[in-house]
Amino acid sequence: MSEKNTESVNSSKVYTLYYAFFLIPLIITIFGVMFFFMFKVLTYETSSPDDYLTDIQIGSSTKRWQAAYELSKLLSNPDIVPKDEGFKNKMISIYEHSIHDDPMVRTYMALAMGRTGRYEYGSTLIDGMNDKDKGSRLAAIKALGLLRYIPAVNAVQKFTEEKYSNP
Hints:
By secondary structure, the protein is mainly alpha-helical. It is 76% helix and 0% strand. The longest helix has 42 residues.
């Protein structure tokens, strides 16, 4: 009888160790991974450049600059840049109307236009060099550089001479 008690106690210890060091941590890990992927799937958003433009146009003040930031990041990929005229016209229109908006919207819109690589935005960005906000002016100059917009060279030289010639 003593042998059966010893076997029973050893068997009980094995099950305790099995549950304590393998099964319970495995279950906790599985639930943690499921929890992580559940939130990853629930919070995943795929937005197109047109969706971001719509958010910039009609979104709340914080959503506008965030959408402009996301758009500028998204348009750095040349495969995603829309080629249609409607998108180009909407970008220019939003940029021109954003002069009365949060300067961050205008800044990120300028960078978005520069990252497209489309020469058509150059003349609009040259006008952006006259903004009141320094960040917006700098973004317009950077966007012109990203576009390699040759007609802007004289305007940028003139801009720097005016701003930095007098101490």
